[in-house]
Amino acid sequence: MYNIRAASIASQFLAYCHYQIECVKYFLTDSPGIIPYKILQDIDSNNQLCIKRYLKKYNLTLSLIKSILFSIFQSAANYYDRSIISAVIFRLNRCNKEDVLALDLFFQAQGLSSSASSSSEPLSTDANTPVLNFDVLYYNIAFSELWLYFNQSDIDQQALNTFQNATIIAPDLPSDLIALIDAWPKCPLDKYRCLLANSSMLMIAARLDGTTPLDFASHLASITRKTRTFYTIPLSGHIIQLSLTTAGYTCPLHLILSWTFPSLFPSECNKPSCITDLPTMIDFVGETEMVQMSSLKIS
């Protein structure tokens, strides 16, 4: 589940700003990985200056802020939108006149208004949103992926709340989530322990995927390397092929299709060297045209 690893993924994501001179120069007092925790505490205690004094009309809550940033971070249709997250964090923390104006435009662009801000989710004009955000479909997919380690206990409400409160980038935590998890049938992994699988499998892991963390994926690939083909994609989150293909990078899609249908695709589509052509940095300061256009769109 995204909630469980969201804090770790958010820290990894903001670390890319920390190691870029043009980005980190705006965070001289505290690092971009530290400031979000201060913002979280201030919002929770109703002491966040910008939100309390200048953005009150949006009725911004801790849950809503997290949900907005999470939506931007994981959006498959808008690969470059996440580059604005560090700027939102910086402006919330500094909060001068220019910051207030920029933040006002940003929250307006998310579909928030005095009448609509009571919603826990940002509005969207995407025609596919009702289907993609359909709770029954989401729970069927997400809960079907649930599994436990050998002799591991279920995650309880307190643990989920701890994960949720530890990051500024996280989806909303539905109140009925624990009840649904408890009622969902679990895969009886014990009966499969120590049994070898012979079927070949392709695994494409993303470095910023909160659902399948890279360290877990790498370990799994290492102990099943005889039957598993494993590729790592930089700077990508969940649903790799969709987000990158939408952004114009077809490498993961080519690797998937050529592995699945080798007789239908030329051999050059199966060369993992194309991974080196994928982005290896996040343009937090708007130096590229794509990020500039994305920033204008969402702010």
In short:
The protein has 299 residues and is mainly α. The protein has helices spanning 2-18, 21-24, 35-44, 49-54, 62-74, 85-94, 97-109, 129-132, 135-144, 157-165, 177-183, 214-223, 240-246, 251-260, 289-298; strands at 201-206, 228-233. It is globular and about 60 Å long.
Describe it for me?
The chain is mainly alpha-helical. 47% of the residues lie in helices and 4% in strands. The chain has a domain at 190-277. It is built from 15 helices and 2 strands. A two-stranded parallel sheet has the order 1-2. Strand 1 (201-206), helix 12 (214-223) and strand 2 (228-233) form a beta-alpha-beta unit. The longest helix has 17 residues, at 2-18.
Question: Features of this protein?
Answer:
299 residues; mainly alpha; two-stranded parallel sheet; 15 helices; 47% helix; 4% strand; globular
Give the rounded overall mean pLDDT: 78
Strand order of the largest sheet: 1-2
DSSP strand tally: 2
Rounded to an integer, what's the Rg over CA atoms? 21 Å
Decide which structural class fits the backbone: mainly alpha
Largest sheet: 2 strands, parallel
Give the SSE map:
Elements: H1 2-18, H2 21-24, H3 35-44, H4 49-54, H5 62-74, H6 85-94, H7 97-109, H8 129-132, H9 135-144, H10 157-165, H11 177-183, E1 201-206, H12 214-223, E2 228-233, H13 240-246, H14 251-260, H15 289-298
Parallel strand pairs: 1-2
